[in-house]
Amino acid sequence: MLDLGLTGKVAIVTGGSVGLGRAAAMRLAREGARVSICARRKEVLERTAGEIRHAGGDVLAIPADVTRADDVEAVVKATTEYASAGIRVNTICLGLVKSEQWERRAKGGDVEAVYREAAKRVPLGRMGEAEEFGDLVAFLVSARAAFITGTSINFDGGMAAVV
Fold first, then answer.
1. Alpha carbon separation from 29 to 33, 49, 60, 136 (Å, rounded)
2. Is 77 inside any structural domain?
3. What is the count of structural domains for the chain?
4. In whole angstroms, how far apart are CA 93 and each of 17, 57, 60, 82, 136?
5. pLDDT tens figures, 82-134
6. pTM here?
7. DSSP-assigned letter for residue 157
8. Angle ∠(153,102,156) on CA atoms, nearest 5
9. Distance CA 136, CA 129 (A)
10. Any idea what the CATH number is for the domain that residue 21 is in?
11. For residue 138, pLDDT beyond 70
12. Which of 35, 95, 99, 143 is the most exposed place for a label (fewest CB within 10 A)?
């Protein structure tokens, strides 16, 4: 097993109650990070926090709207331990990934049919999974990726025409 060196580290995951944010928070917690999650819908946020705790993770759930500066400040204050050095910033450029947003687009219909149709645009022939996104996030914040910073990573199954 690859030790990502996340035990005891602190991570803030915005939009951490569902979809990609939830997947990232779950993965980080499984790797031993102390996770602070925030989202607008308190009841959904608390449900996800309960799932993380039930799986043995350390989580702090903070209702917040990240479009509001005072909410963002409250999340950081309630969490981040500040690091005076070693803070890395990378961007994940999303392609088509299964999420609650796609399920809403199906409007109670056949979500798998929606996924199959969308996947026709992806060179790998399928949509990404939220758990795969969580794995990438966990790797990027890990000690194993300590020299990766200031970059953009395409998480798109080959949709971007770049190498």
1. 5, 10, 11, 14
2. yes
3. 1
4. 20, 27, 27, 26, 12
5. 434 456 778 899 999 998 888 888 888 888 998 999 999 999 999 999 999 99
6. 0.80
7. T
8. 20
9. 11
10. 3.40.50.720
11. yes
12. 143
